[in-house]
Design goal:
Structural class: mainly beta
Number of helices: 1
Radius of gyration: 24 Å
Distance between the termini: 33 Å
Number of strands: 38
């Protein structure tokens, strides 16, 4: 890894859209799908005509029957999809870590996707499909996490079998075809063919500071594989670049002179050590070939676009951690039901007796934080509608690391207390508080920058200047190094307790 060969990379979509997979369509356009973990709708689908400018066209997983689980927790759910087209059908293979590996299909990604085809007998995560020239289909992925019938675990590496993609039946015994170059978390494999040569690309080093991407080649899908002498292809480890943890690549135009490659990475601030909390975001670059290998070696990348509107920073999509099976949340705009991508909406919440964990249903509804600098606000027209508990705005990394600015049900004196609180692995710290009349119409506001989050409550009749600042929380509290997990930050509203609460003018601005 070096700072002497840094190249720009174009961000495709802002906010947490990890584990990108791409596919060229028969029409010459491109599709990208991303991991969604516990969030629903899941598996967001993007489309591009040139590989640079993208738009969202839907979600491959938008029906509860596509996302079965008995229990759900943060950073569980849907892992690392692979999208491929073959003989008129798009195949999307992915792991539901709470259920197993599955395949969704469609002939038209704009028109919705099938129910899951479950892959029996294939353990592990990050499954990938490869269709050879003769139509033979292969599945590859990393080792399974559970012991086999002899009580032994599979060694770390990439495994391969033939598969019937129409039934999910694994046809041949799993074969370990690659152990990686370090043995540290080889995962996210993709197989390609260029001429008569088969190529295997995979991520390694963990999807953190040591993340990298490697490649090997062979005359047969089953190997043996020759390692590229220039591995790793890409990595930003041991650099001070804004973009970190790059890897988990996928490619289109693999057989051509120039290949389109996507990968994910995290944007960090300039603290020491640097901190990031927005999530793993997808980037796109093109590379050339030389002597049968990508003309990449120890390549570093940094952000080409940062807040200029071409990376979907202003896109809003209302999603929930887990599925809102009890229909607690209704998003509307005026009289009409809003689309999932509408900003400045009204959200009605039927409060439930729950916390921020996922054991009793979706704990909130929100939109991805897409930039470090933003403002998110919601107007609580009548706090008296909450008869028990609390309601407000949340900045949510996971159920043990989140921030709230909230009101509690009014007391006997007709007052309500607005309180900003930071929750850090079970430790709750009051950031600031103020009491106002229960009849007050309040706007709860959170603003972000490179250092973290500021909270305020607005009411023109209650506060001089119309706004009361409640305090600041360092962003590192929600950073990957502290909060952990594989996602990013959700900005949204919630009501825990009882009553029907309406949030008006719920708006996200960057």
């Amino acid at each position: 890894m070096t700072l002497f060969n840094v190249q720009p990379a174009r961000r495709i979509a802002s906010g947490f859209h990890p584990d990108p997979t791409i596919c060229e369509t028969p029409q010459g356009t491109y599709l990208m799908v991303n991991s969604s973990f516990e969030y629903f709708p899941g598996l967001p689908v993007f489309e591009s005509e040139d590989g640079e400018h993208w738009r969202k066209i839907g979600d491959a997983m938008n029906r509860p029957e596509q996302f079965p689980y008995e229990t759900m927790d943060n950073s569980q759910g849907i892992y690392a999809p692979t999208l491929r087209w073959h003989d008129g059908t798009y195949y999307l293979i992915v792991t539901n870590v709470n259920k197993g590996n599955m395949i969704l299909t469609t002939e038209d990604p704009h028109a919705g996707w099938s129910d899951p085809i479950w892959v029996d007998g294939w353990p592990g995560i990050d499954p990938s499909l490869f269709f050879d020239d003769d139509g033979t289909a292969y599945i590859c992925g990393n080792e399974g996490g559970e012991p086999d019938e002899n009580g032994e675990r599979e060694p770390a590496g990439i495994y391969l079998s033939k598969i019937d993609v129409n039934t999910g039946t694994v046809l041949t015994k799993r074969k370990r075809i690659c152990g990686g170059i370090t043995g540290s978390n080889p995962e996210g494999p993709h197989m390609y063919k260029r001429g008569d040569t088969y190529y295997l690309m995979w991520a390694e080093g963990g999807t953190e500071s040591g993340h990298m991407e490697n490649i090997a080649r062979s005359s047969s899908p089953e190997g043996p594989y020759e390692m590229y002498p220039g591995n790793p292809l890409i990595t930003n480890r041991s650099t001070h670049l804004t973009l970190q943890a790059i890897g988990h690549c996928d490619c289109a135009h693999f057989g051509d002179d120039r290949t389109l490659m996507v990968f994910h990475g995290t944007r960090n601030n300039d603290e020491y050590p640097a901190q990031g909390w927005v999530g793993r975001e997808p980037y796109a670059v093109w590379f050339d070939w030389k002597d049968g290998w990508p003309e990449l070696a120890d390549q570093s990348y940094d952000c080409d676009l940062n807040g200029h509107g071409d990376s979907l920073e202003s896109d809003v999509e209302w999603i929930t951690p887990g599925i809102d099976v009890d229909r607690q949340y209704v998003v509307s705009s005026g009289r009409a039901v809003a689309t999932s991508t509408t900003n400045n909406v009204t959200i009605a919440v039927h409060a439930a007796a729950q916390s921020f964990d996922l054991a009793h249903g979706a704990p909130m509804i929100g939109t991805r934080q897409t930039d470090l600098r933003f403002e998110f606000g919601a107007t609580l027209a009548d706090a008296r509608a909450l008869t028990l508990g609390e309601a407000g705005v949340a900045v949510y990394a996971n159920s043990r690391h989140y921030l709230t600015i909230a009101v509690r049900a009014s007391d006997a004196n007709g007052l309500i207390r607005v309180k900003a609180t930071a929750h850090n692995a079970g430790l709750a710290t009051v950031v600031g508080t103020v009491a106002v009349p229960a009849s007050a119409k309040l706007r709860l506001v959170v603003r972000g920058d490179e250092s973290g989050y500021d909270f305020a409550v607005a009411n023109t009749s209650a506060f001089a200047g119309g706004e009361q600042l409640l305090g600041h929380v360092p962003g590192k509290l929600l950073s990957f190094t502290n909060a952990g997990g594989f996602t990013g930050i959700l900005l949204g509203v919630y009501a825990h307790g009882s009553g029907d609460v309406t949030f008006a003018n719920v708006r996200y601005d960057v």
